[in-house]
């Protein structure tokens, strides 16, 4: 499937209408496509609002009422006259309509719960898209700063890392190319090195081997940055030896 085809799947993805292989391909594409992420958020929010507009919540005690009513209704005595058969068919149709209505209400109530969940996912996606736009703006600002300075070093397994620092913006960016994925349940964590004292500078995306990351926080007195392997979610301080130390350019 070519990339242009993937852009057309955002609506079907939001409605859970993709086959497993299409969904996997689209989710891989979604990680790097802000436009599709925004469309998925909007489609999902719209579907959620439509569902909430028609959803009904079961009345309190509804189950007990149904069970009590079943116990009170006597089963009709079998009969064979045409008239009784017509009445029996009419009665079956009446009960069938009530069961269909009950099933519809139950399904609608379940749909209401599903759409609430979908709406929350949409809001999460919208917030993530907002954070992505903010990070992209920060990244561009640092790289385009007139005083931006860079330094590139070789990392393990042939990978390459570049750190870019802007004194005027007091920010730094790390560009990784070809880094190995961290072990399962682990993540690469970035640190500001302030005269041997490590300060948390954020996490890298463990699913991507090449990426650009704006270090969290200002540079201040840091003269270098470090990278360690930490448990998923990161650590308050390094728990392993740095896999790389990159002195800041002067």
Automatic annotation (TrEMBL):
InterPro entries: Anti-sigma-K/W_factor (IPR051474), Anti_sigma_zinc_sf (IPR041916), RskA_C (IPR018764), RskA_N (IPR053877). This is Regulator of SigK. The chain crosses the membrane at residues 95-117. GO terms for biological process: regulation of translation. It comes from the Bacteria. It is found in: Cell membrane; Membrane. It is a single-pass membrane protein. Gene3D superfamilies: Anti-sigma factor, zinc-finger domain (1.10.10.1320). Residues 6-39 form the Anti-sigma-K factor RskA N-terminal domain.
């Amino acid at each position: 499937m070519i990339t242009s085809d993937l852009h057309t799947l955002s609506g079907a993805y939001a409605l859970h209408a993709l086959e497993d292989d299409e969904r996997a391909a689209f989710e891989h594409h979604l990680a790097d496509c802000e436009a599709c992420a925004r469309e998925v958020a909007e489609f999902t929010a719209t579907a959620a609002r439509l569902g909430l507009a028609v959803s009904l919540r079961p009345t309190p005690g509804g189950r007990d009422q149904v069970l009590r009513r079943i116990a009170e209704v006597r089963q009709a005595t079998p009969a064979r006259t045409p008239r009784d058969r017509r009445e029996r068919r009419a009665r079956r149709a009446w009960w069938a309509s009530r069961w269909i209505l009950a099933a519809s209400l139950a399904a609608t109530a379940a749909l209401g719960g599903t759409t609430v969940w979908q709406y929350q996912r949409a809001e999460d996606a919208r917030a993530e898209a907002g954070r992505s736009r903010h990070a992209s703006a920060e990244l561009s600002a640092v790289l385009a700063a007139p005083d931006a300075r860079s330094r590139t070093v070789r990392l393990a397994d042939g990978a390459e890392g570049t750190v870019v620092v802007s004194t005027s913006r007091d920010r730094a960016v790390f560009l990784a190319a070809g880094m190995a994925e961290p072990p399962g349940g682990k993540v690469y964590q970035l640190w500001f090195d302030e005269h041997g004292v490590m300060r948390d500078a954020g996490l890298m995306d463990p699913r991507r081997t090449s990426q650009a990351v704006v270090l969290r926080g200002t540079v201040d007195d840091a003269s270098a940055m470090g990278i360690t392997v930490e448990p998923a979610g990161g650590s308050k301080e390094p728990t392993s030896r740095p896999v790389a130390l990159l002195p800041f350019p002067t």
